[in-house]
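Raw record, unedited: Flagellar biosynthetic protein FlhB
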Amino acid sequence: MAENENGQEKTEEPTAKRQREAREKGQVPRSREFNTLTVLLAGAGFMVFFGGHLGAQLAAQMADGFTLERELFYDTQRLLPYLASQIGRALQTLAPLFALLFVVALLGPILIGGANFSAQAMAPKLDKLNPLKGIKRQFSAQALLELGKTLAKFVIVSLVAGMVLWSVSDELLHLGEEPLKEAIFHTADMAVWIFLLVSAALVLIAAVDVPFQLWNHNKQLRMTRQELKDEYKETDGKPEVKGRIRQLQQEMASRRMMAEVPKADVVITNPTRYAVAIVYEPARMRAPRLLAKGVGEVAGAIRALADEHDIIRVEAPRVARAIYFTTDLGEEIPGGLFVAVARILAYVYQLKRHDPEVSMPTDLPVPDEYLDPREAARAARGNR
């Protein structure tokens, strides 16, 4: 099990933040064996399909290059431009091969770890110039692993090359009996196929190295539980900071809620424990809505605002508790409380008209389940 510098085991999978930071530092899974395989196979494949045409062009250019005018040897002003033109022709002929190898060399790493550009990885680091650290890296477990892979490649490639050469030994012996031109083309054709088969031998090493590099990269990014907790604190904030933020949010919400109290038609109280402020405008509301609610000190503040703005307060303990538990701010009163709230509003409207015969209604039906917070929530969802 991997451990960090403090001796703690890295048992936790890397988080998205850890992986993102690793990519920013240039730490992505890479397989040199896979890159080598793709470049060699691409080059061999190109030579199989286009090697004849490429060889013919180079042969023609070589023949032209050796066919020189005698005066050219004695004219240095013409000789150098001629040499440059011949080099240019050769590079132009080989350009498709070079372009293919360049593209494959870029795509190989992308297929394993994705495209990634890291300025941090390109920045010079003085610790890399430390000879002691260099010696330490030479004798590290990673260096031993690379040595093992190199030896494995040597053994596998040597075995495959020996088997291929043995299988074509008869053809190689008969090359001396062929005419020179045919022997040259035959040798080139055999060399291309031998190169392709020997390159394909690296498939075995790449098939082992790619999964290992992906596993090793993930292993290096693993985190201890303490690192996971520290990252959680950095991303989501420390508990005390989050608590302070929640407190500020609650205070802001409370201030917004209190600003709505003066718009209420009635404040229903417990009388001291709970308080809820209700408004009803028939022209634009289907049912009464809850503007504010509170318990304890918040309820006292709602009652004080109601008195300050001459809003009628009605003591109806069961109704106040039921509304408090079933209704969120801005929501309509649930259907199970329509009758009770309607009778309270009717009473309030009569008081505002100074009706001398008005009396507080006593029949305010409130289902018992509305008085329990859990039952109230289920009942409110069922009535909406």
